[in-house]
């Protein structure tokens, strides 16, 4: 069952080929990766060089707003790099998995760990990659 099938807002997402393979391997190795697997299933996979600069990737710093207007800035990272005090969110968390592949301006509904439905809107994406190096961060 698709985790987001009952939710009303699931925009198109884009993930680069190399990053998709890495995230699929990561999710397959973790029993609690349902959120990430669900997002990977619905992603459009493109060549890494074809990913627009405003798409959330591993290592991206993302400013987003929830439906109540609360704004937050986080960096999406691999689990071993996560540190909530430094706003480094693991891609295996509901928020981290939800952010991957979204673009600036998109909104998405997702299910929190508590089972509630929440919505967030991407305000700004900053990627650590320059134009000459489209390779996603290594795991």
What topology emerges from the helices and strands here?
Layout: E1 14-16, H1 17-28, H2 34-42, E2 44-46, E3 61-66, E4 71-77, E5 88-90, H3 94-99, E6 107-111, E7 117-126
Parallel strand pairs: 1-2, 4-5
Antiparallel strand pairs: 3-4, 3-7, 6-7
What does the main sheet amount to? 5 strands, mixed
Tally of helical runs: 3
The neighbouring-strand order within the major sheet is 5-4-3-7-6
Mean pLDDT: 87
Helix and strand run: EHHEEEEHEE
- How many beta-strand runs? 7
Q: Name the helicity range.
A: 10-25%
Question: How would you explain this protein's 3D organization?
Answer:
The chain is of the alpha/beta class. It has a single domain, classed as Chitinase A, domain 3 (Roll). The protein contains three helices and seven strands, in the order βααββββαββ. A five-stranded mixed beta sheet has the order 5-4-3-7-6. Strands 1-2 form a two-stranded parallel ribbon. A hairpin with a 5-residue loop joins β6 and β7.
In summary, what is this structure?
This protein is of the alpha/beta class and 139 residues long.
Essential attributes:
disordered N terminus, alpha/beta, single chain, two-stranded parallel sheet, Chitinase A, domain 3, 139 residues, 19% helix
